[in-house]
Amino acid sequence: xxxxxxxxxxxxxxxxxIVLTLPEMFFEDRKMTIxxxxxKFERYMHQEDAIWNFRLTNLPKHxxxxxxxxxxxxxxxxxxxxxxxxxxxxxxxxASDGQMRYFPSSNWVLFxxxxxxxxxxxxxxxxxxxxxxxxLF
Length: 137
Prior knowledge:
about 140 residues; 2 helices
């Protein structure tokens, strides 16, 4: 489990959130730079009823409150967890060219704002899937 100080294997720690990585391919598929994505994501998540969908192969088993996003080798945001969805097909038009992307029968983590940026640069290597964490900030 990721904690503010270190990675911990302490089984008594209960997770407060999960950490998700947006790989470089995420930005390439949408034909946008990291800065373009940040502007779009922040603008979208400031809308009152905005919910972001993130596709995962395996869903977490623990209840959580927060979703942290890692990209560009650091934790960029903390969001509020909404719910998990299992085996649901979705279509999105979130690329800079407006191209539709279809995801058949996928698992989803849904989260919303307000988005919180870390109080300092929080270096974090990316990884596949998710990692549980305590409240990081």
